[in-house]
Amino acid sequence: MNFSLVASATGAASQEAAPVAYFGSSTLRVVFDTNLVVSLYIFADSRFSPLRGLIERRAWQALSNERCLGEFRRVLAYPQFSMEPERQSQALAAYQSTVIHVEASAEPVIELPRCKDRDDQKFLELARDGGADLLVTADKALLKLARRDRLSGVFRILTPEAALSEVTGPTPAPEVPLL
C-alpha cells in the first residue's frame, strides 16, 4: 500500500511510508474519532488519558487529515463545552502537534464498507489512506463494521477500552477467598 504524508506542524517535507504490519513491531499508526480526541484533549481526567500519553511519547502515531481536524475544530466551539476561543486553539494545536497529516488517496486500492453514519466514513478513509493499524472509537456505527470483519487485514476497529487493554494487558480478575 502506498500513500502520501503531508507535513505536520513541523513543516517537514512530504514522504512515502509503509504501514506497520503487526502490533508490537514498531510505532502503531492510529486513527481516533472526534469524540475520543475531545476526551483526550479537553478533559484532563479522561479515563483514556494513557492513550494520549502513548501519542505524546510517540509510541503510537496519531493520524489525521483536514476533514477530521475540521470536525474537531467545530466540536471545540460547541456551546456545551463553554470554551474560550484561546482554549479551543490550544486544544487544537496540542492535537495537531502530535499527528501526521494524511492526504486522501487519489485512487484507493482498498474499497471500504459504507458506514451507516455518513459522517463517520471519513475515519475509515483516513485509516485506509494512512495505513493505520487501528481505528479507536466508541461510535456504534463504526464498531458494527468491526463485528462484520469486513476490514480484516486492513486495520482493526477497537473501543478505547480494548485499545487500553492491549497496552496495559487484561485486568486481572479479583481473587476470591477460599471458604
Structural overview:
It is a single chain. With 179 residues, the protein is α/β, with parallel strands linked by helices. It has one domain: 5'-nuclease (Rossmann fold), CATH 3.40.50. The chain is 37% helix and 15% strand. It has helices at 34-42, 49-56, 66-76, 85-96, 121-129, 140-148, 160-168; strands at 3-6, 15-17, 28-32, 60-64, 99-102, 134-136, 156-158. Strands 2-1-5-4-3-6-7 form a seven-stranded mixed sheet, sandwiched between helices. A hairpin with an 8-residue loop joins β1 and β2 (15-17). The longest helix has 12 residues, at 85-96. The model is unreliable at 1-25 (pLDDT under 50).
Keywords:
179 residues; alpha/beta; Rossmann fold; 7-stranded mixed beta sheet; disordered N terminus
Please give a quick description of this structure.
The protein is α/β, with parallel strands linked by helices and 179 residues long. 37% of the residues lie in helices and 15% in strands.
